Amino acid sequence: MVARRRRSAPEAAGGRTSARTARVRMTGKERRQQLLDVARELFAEKGFDGASIEEIAHRAGVSKPVVYEHFGGKEGIYAVVVDREMRHLLDLIVSALSAGHPRELLEQAAHALLEYIDNSTDGFRILVRDSPVASTSGTFSSLLNDIASQVEHIFGLQFSAKGYDKKLAPLYSQALVGMVALTGQWWLEVRKPKKEEVAAHLVNLAWNGLSHLEHKPTLRRPK
């Protein structure tokens, strides 16, 4: 029994040494990425207020000072997570609007958003949450404005070609992007019907409505 205990002590010490060595062997870049992945999952699960540096550190298997060293605090790591998600989604939308017939561009943009929601659910949950530290350049509404500015170009070309007032293109682009975004938030929870079908119905409403626009619409109020 004594011999066994003597062997177990070095083994336990060796285990602790191995754990420390494993943490040391992770490069700074790898550690930063690990912390971002852990924080992303936690923010999606609990929101900014519900998450803590303690839990991020615990899930990553590091001490709190390691998190502070890389990001300075919870606000810092949250800002990086949000910025990465915004850039990723915007890149997807911009890529979808690169070429094709206007209707095809709208289809591709709607599908790109739903594809992002489907494949990056945690990221979308983070983007649509309200946060006390989200700045005007780091909110979901700001992201939608960026996307709308891309869609506005499509509307501008179509309005000019069909004799509509080009100055109204920003209004219509905001309306369309808002419709797709709100539908995406709803679809995030229900996941029915399939994203291809959802995108088709969104474009059906937008495009077939746009194809019969009145040049000077008025509200039809009863006299």
Describe the structure.
- This protein is mainly α.
- It folds into two domains: 1-72, Homeodomain-like (Arc Repressor Mutant, subunit A, Orthogonal Bundle), CATH 1.10.10; 82-213, Tetracycline Repressor, domain 2, CATH 1.10.357.
- The chain has ten helices and no strands.
- The chain is elongated, with a radius of gyration of 25 Å.
Biggest sheet features:
none
Percentage of β-strand residues: under 5%
Q: What's the count of strands?
A: 0
Number of separate helices: 10
- The share of residues in helices is over 70%
Chain-averaged pLDDT:
82
Flag low-confidence runs. Answer: 1-22, 131-137
Kindly name the structural category. Answer: mainly alpha
Rg calc: 25 Å
Write down the CATH class of the largest domain: Mainly Alpha
Q: Supply the CATH architecture of the largest domain.
A: Orthogonal Bundle
CATH topology of the largest domain: Tetracycline Repressor, domain 2
Q: Between the first and last Cα atoms, what is the distance in angstroms?
A: 99 Å
The outline comes out as elongated
